[in-house]
Amino acid sequence: MTQELTVQLADQKREKPDQANLGFGRIFTDHMFMMDYTEGKGWHDARITPYQPITLDPSAMVFHYGQTVFEGMKAYLTKEGRVFLFRPEKNMERLNRSNDRLCIPQIDGDFVIEGLKQLIKVDQEWIPTAEGTSLYIRPFIIATEPFLGVAPSKNYIFMAIMSPVGLYYKEGIAPVKILVENEFVRAVKGGTGEAKTGGNYASSLKGQEVAAQKNYSQVLWLDGVEKKYIEEVGSMNVFFKIDGEVVTPALNGSILHGVTRDSVIQLLKHWNVPVAERRVSIDEIAEAYRNGKLEEAFGTGTAAVISPIGEFLWGEEKMVLNGGQTGELSKRIYDTITGIQKGAEKDEFGWITEVPVSELK
Ligand SMILES: *Cc1c(COP(=O)(O)O)cnc(C)c1O
């Protein structure tokens, strides 16, 4: 698929936000990347346009049956003023896997990456410069056919919007408290847990709300059948260090294929730290804790990279890890991955794609 990409620049540039208070996902850049899909014609009219509201028919299928997918990635500014993307081809691969599950047509990953690079170039002044900040990129696809029948839509819109984001943890990485979820489930094998689709998030809100009322920041999701095996933490993949070995739940059909997850596994193998992808039960974790062998636990995802876990509450049992402090290995992984992303560490794995931009300071 070779497509043209047209560029329509905004008449006015909006004021850039205060970098000390970026937060996450409320501020958007001047432009966005869009393309349309029409059955019989494929993806067409790829364009960079000013960031603006879109008009949809109220009967557009996405509003009714949730046929939608998304991705989350970041652009990082190095000290030298270069702009890096982290493994964007993995996001495109996953977008197409999500598309397949949701009966949405495949996109041309290479073309979309080119479009994203153009978009970043156009909005390069929006990449924040302060320590720990980055430009979050949100590609997504929605079903737009005006039709209330339950069937795959014949029309779609692809969009990518961008948001300058702050450091996830203001005081560096800080451990969070996690409630083990015994009632609600996020996903089941055969369902859509492997796809990055809005419905998974909608169904996770309730458990999250209950946890927040109890002062826990996220939930630990167990499998949907036996409620015994660990799947994910919040909207992150999860890792445990038990007696020197790192274990993470194997991808079983209901766990999202995290790019950060994959990167952590590669890194640990490279460091000769024993790492296993297998089934991990909550009983095993509690048993390891009681025997003093549960050394560290952390979540992984693009937003926070590494989110150390300081405490689990499972029913009546409270497990405090590492005195509630960030573990040594968690910190080392965090420093290495963020170092590669910012160009401060050597990219030995070929994870970086550079975005050609004119000189930034
Ligand atoms: C996006 C996501 C992750 C993390 O994936 P990354 O590619 O590492 O950002 C993990 N779990 C869920 C449910 C997700 O949606």
TrEMBL record:
One of the Pfam families matching this protein, by short name: Aminotran_4
Transmembrane segments: none
Cofactors demanded by this protein: pyridoxal 5'-phosphate
Positions where N6-(pyridoxal phosphate)lysine occurs in the chain: 196
Keywords recorded for this protein, A-Z: Amino-acid biosynthesis, Aminotransferase, Branched-chain amino acid biosynthesis, Pyridoxal phosphate, Transferase
Record-level Gene Ontology MF annotations: L-isoleucine-2-oxoglutarate transaminase activity; L-leucine-2-oxoglutarate transaminase activity; L-valine-2-oxoglutarate transaminase activity
InterPro entries listed in its UniProt record: Aminotrans_IV, Aminotrans_IV_CS, Aminotransferase-like, B_amino_transII, BCAT-like_C, BCAT-like_N, BCAT_family
Annotated Gene3D superfamilies: 3.30.470.10, D-amino Acid Aminotransferase, subunit A, domain 2
Pathway: Amino-acid biosynthesis; L-isoleucine biosynthesis; L-isoleucine from 2-oxobutanoate: step 4/4; Amino-acid biosynthesis; L-leucine biosynthesis; L-leucine from 3-methyl-2-oxobutanoate: step 4/4; Amino-acid biosynthesis; L-valine biosynthesis; L-valine from pyruvate: step 4/4
Family (UniProt): Belongs to the class-IV pyridoxal-phosphate-dependent aminotransferase family.
Protein name per UniProt: Branched-chain-amino-acid aminotransferase
Species this chain originates from: Domibacillus iocasae
